[in-house]
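Before surveying the methods themselves, we first show a specimen of the format, giving the amino acid sequence and backbone structure tokens:

:::
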Amino acid sequence: MRVRCRACGWQQVQDQVLANKRAGAAQTPVTVYPPGAVAPGTGAQTEIDKALLGSGSRLQVLNRITELYRPEFLQTRFKAAQGLIELGEKLGREPNPEERQNLEQFARFRQDAVRQLNQYINEITGAAIGQGEEAERLKSGVPNPGTGLFGGDSPTVFLSKLNNTIRDLRLAEARLQYIKTQGFKLQDVSLDQMPTIMRKSKDQIVKDLGLDESKAEDREILKNRLAIEFGLLR
């Protein structure tokens, strides 16, 4: 448990923390916000909460895309085969169970991936997708499933972009939660600083509580404390 004040900085309330650990109680930080910091009920707090909700929703979609992802979904031969199966179904040919399953999974993956791409471009540009060179430039920075046989990323490029996008979004979410709980202003903490901040915080928690990461109970305590500070539950 950490209490932040202007005069004394961070103080560790060791006896209470250790007592809570032995009792299995939840660890709840108490923060005294310094002048100019984000405080509950302020406009800045509301904006941070909105941003956290937005990033949480996007992470859910990206995680679902990861679960649905199969390399063949980005390969021309597979996409052509699905197109033929879909056309055959329209003409009255019933797909067999395996074909139906593949087509359903491919359709869900493509829908989620295209929707995420469109949402990203709309949020960045404030305009509908398809606005010429600007939209094409933005597409190159996110996982792009394409809409035709030859469009979009290759399997390796798509997965690399997807993992990197998830990483960046989780860092952004962690920074928002960190600022919300610790009372910093957004400009005080850059995204590049977050891995170091998170690593130092983890090491400090382990040290302060005397945790042993080889033990499941201590790992759960560490996870909960990090979740409070950085929102890292997903």
The beta strands are 2-5, 9-12. The two ends are 23 Å apart (CA to CA).
